[in-house]
Fold:
Amino acid sequence: KQEVTQIPAALSVPEGENLVLNCSFTDSAIYNLQWFRQDPGKGLTSLLLIQSSQREQTSGRLNASLDKSSGRSTLYIAASQPGDSATYLCAVLNTGNQFYFGTGTSLTVIP
Amino acid sequence: DGGITQSPKYLFRKEGQNVTLSCEQNLNHDAMYWYRQDPGQGLRLIYYSQIVNDFQKGDIAEGYSVSREKKESFPLTVTSAQKNPTAFYLCASSQGLAVNTGELFFGEGSRLTVL
Structure:
């Protein structure tokens, strides 16, 4: 069964710092990988989706990369802002339309 | 404005009562999902449906029931058989891989508290 791991569980950085969040998965037979943001008490908001044939996707200050063969993805956030404080989750889509989620990284950006 | 609407946002239940959480989507998605989120744990799949009038159990289906009579709607009933129902419930939908990227979209969630 697919297992998705996100390390670290929590991260605190000063405003303006560039940072990297990590996501690893055990089964490389995925269709896509998706990064989400979740604010306290809210649903998940999709940030970036990388198809299995792609290596990276970019949206504004966010860049996500995918190395399917090694089972890893990273989410790079440039010039972090206090508004970036949230929990970031990654999810992979396997065969049978099954999604598998990591437990998330809680990010705090200190002004 | 397309999206997924969950209601109610907050719900309180007495022990022994059944409650139903609503999930409506206007994204024309075929697949719909219900997840449960507890503090410190990842999302756990309760039920999912790939098509109208069909649904499958997820990892933690015991004590829950669903229906999929319309493409837009996928209500979740938390029955009295669910021993620990206090949690945050998330509904999601996806177009699926046949015609799209398989991107998953979520509603805003419903928080259920058992009194």
Q: What stands out?
A: The radius of gyration of chain A is 13 Å. The CA atoms of residues 21 and 75 of chain A lie 5 Å apart. Chain A touches chain B through 23 residues (CB under 8 Å). Chain A has a mean pLDDT of 95.
